[in-house]
């Protein structure tokens, strides 16, 4: 409560003489909180970010926002900031995520869904085209491996209650090395790291908010594998897409990327393999993160999304013979899940 009062006082000092109401704007898997400020005079609403110092650092958010904005992507505008206390006043990109729009019925039309994803790919390509080394942290071996290690620690041991044998641990470590070898061989670009349907905002024509999509939650951006954000987008943890739909859009992206001079593979088959193996790394990480959010942070809402992530992981392991031993381990952890989600 004290923190909220500090935020109110800061906002009142930042916007003197203006009466406002604050309401929660969105949930977050971190310690950040977002509030929507609405004004008695009917002026446009604003978003206030509360990032408690010591737990969150808003400087990476500010750096990435400027990089992405300069690239031509639509990110929130920074209207005021207090680095010492961890407060930001931002433009409001609305409350309709891609996920909400696609699950509300508008996504029942595959042409509409394809249009929304084409917009998202356009913004992603612009970000990637602006990439250069030495600006963002490297998505290096240590970070990629640390993320995958969340799987045995939080998903296997804590969530499933399974103690791996020495042989199984060795098998998992061998699989990780194979995955890393493919991931680290990919060409590198700026990587949002969570470029999916909950972090893309639907901006309808005529709402005055600008180009679609609005992009949020980019503070963890890095310089890493070019396929990573494509995995986040198409192998989403929150909505299922038919593989034919994914493949069609992935080919369209690859063709456009080549024309733009982005560092994609010369052969689509090689590019697709990179995409699939990058997905395995991400799915292992996400399962670990969802388990940690539940058991450490008391956020059990993510458990409902685990079956879809596990299904993504299984499909990739079935497709690639080198991942067969990992698939056997998944079979020991739990039986194959029933298909879930939305297919268009």
Explain what you see.
The radius of gyration is 21 Å and the shape is globular. The protein has helices at residues 2-14, 59-71, 98-103, 110-129, 141-148, 150-159, 166-184, 228-234, 243-260, 268-295, 306-319, 324-333; strands at 20-26, 33-39, 46-50, 78-82, 87-91, 188-191, 200-201, 214-215, 222-225. It has 2 domains: 2-91, Phosphorylase Kinase, domain 1, CATH 3.30.200.20; 98-333, Alpha-Beta Complex (Aminoglycoside 3'-phosphotransferase, Chain: A, domain 2), CATH 3.90.1200.10. The protein starts with a helix and ends in an 11-residue tail after the last helix. The protein is α+β, with helices and mostly antiparallel strands and 344 residues long.
SSE map:
Elements lengths: L1 H13 L5 E7 L6 E7 L6 E5 L8 H13 L6 E5 L4 E5 L6 H6 L6 H20 L11 H8 L1 H10 L6 H19 L3 E4 L8 E2 L12 E2 L6 E4 L2 H7 L8 H18 L7 H28 L10 H14 L4 H10 L11
Antiparallel strand pairs: 1-2, 2-3, 3-5, 4-5, 6-9, 7-8
